[in-house]
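User: Predict structure, ligand histidyl-adenosine monophosphate.
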Amino acid sequence: MVIGEKMESIQAVRGMNDILPDEAGWWQKVENAAREVLGNFGYREIRTPVLEKLELFARSIGESTDIVEKEMYAFEDRNGERLALRPEATASIVRSYVQHSLYTDSALQKLYEIGPMFRHERPQKGRYRQFHQIDAEVFGIDGPMIDAEMMHMLSLLMDRIGLSGLILNINTLGCPECRQTYREILKDFLTAKGDQFCPDCLRRRETNPLRVFDCKVERCGALLESAPLLIDYICEDCRAHFEAVKDYLEKLGTRYEVNPRIVRGLDYYMRTTFEVITDRLGAQNAIGGGGRYDGLVRDLGGPDVPAIGFAIGMERLIMLLQQEHREQVRALQANVTEQSSTSQVNVPDGVKITEPSRAPFVFIASLGEQPRASAFELVQQLRGRGLEAEMDYEGRSLKSQMRRADKSGARYVLIFGEDELMRRQIQLRDMRTKTQRVLPLDDLVESMLRIDSETTER
Ligand code: HAM
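Assistant: Predicted complex:
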């Protein structure tokens, strides 16, 4: 290295994003709303590792799905063990449910997990290689009531977060028996079309015909317009289950549309499947999706326990939320401009909208070595008593400290230098009224607590 040469900076891995402090408020808002709503419905949090044995995903999601075939971050560790970064949470939660016998007292468990997932897809707007999901799962109920309740809860969560205009699409994939009959019918349809499908679909025709509905190639989509649909071939029991799910949804006032082309990209589903979509994010239109997976617990070595769940993609949800927020601000702006013809905050497209960060209650500005050391102790004492306090750590000029205090939005500033320290006094400046008074230094924490409660009361 040549001395003085600038080192090349290291960038994040492609498709993996930092969530910067300006944006973190949005994430907290969504997570808090999710925890509140899920908690009200009786869900408890579970946290599973991001790394699992590769076999877990191959056996649950399916060997011939895009996720397992093309998108997994899979590798051998130093001991030669085949591992994978989780592409979703369901398989891990089922593994944990089985491993820890969470069914011992009762098979019923309502669980949720929030965290990062990893898929090696081609990154684009709304599609990343590390993304986050809010995932909810219910074990132990096979009746249609819980299917409807889950979708109702999902809609409620969207409302609580403040998102409108989302569409709930539902479908049924039948049970393995009715799917077997349909597979042959679909295979015959695909065979009759000869080689018109893309090479991937031709391969899917042999390995896993239902997956052709996942194909993004336009030509394949057009050919599938006239394909037979699974919903027309389901058995009596599956039909009755689906009808009951729809009835319950109507009773709950949850709006839905039946979309018989939803197959979902994972193999473990059966019966009810659903997706929440938006027409406002371009190609990546699915905000969330889920469905019933009654055979999976058994297939992963547990008892025969039915289960259903969904996951919401947090990046897409937040993107949509920011978009709506931007539009609201713009509408408000237009309104104000119309009335007063003064221009307000400018919110151009692509600009990150930041949630207001929390402003400190008090900022301590100090002048001199000794006062700064006392300020350091004071700030910890104030925080220890539950007050949000900030200070200058670097001994800047009073002017620059006041500028920082102002920028931070602090309600009060405490100012002291050598003189005040000697007289055991401190100046308190109310940043809102721009007035100043003197407080005794010795019971300052108590005084500030009193002022805090008076300020909150008013
Ligand atoms: P999924 O449909 O694969 O389902 O993913 C759920 C949501 O995660 C999607 O609707 C989307 O919002 C988000 N998502 C998926 N891939 C990406 C990506 N590359 N970038 C950004 N967001 C993405 C599942 O994962 C199932 N485990 C859901 C489930 C739970 N089924 C039953 N229980």
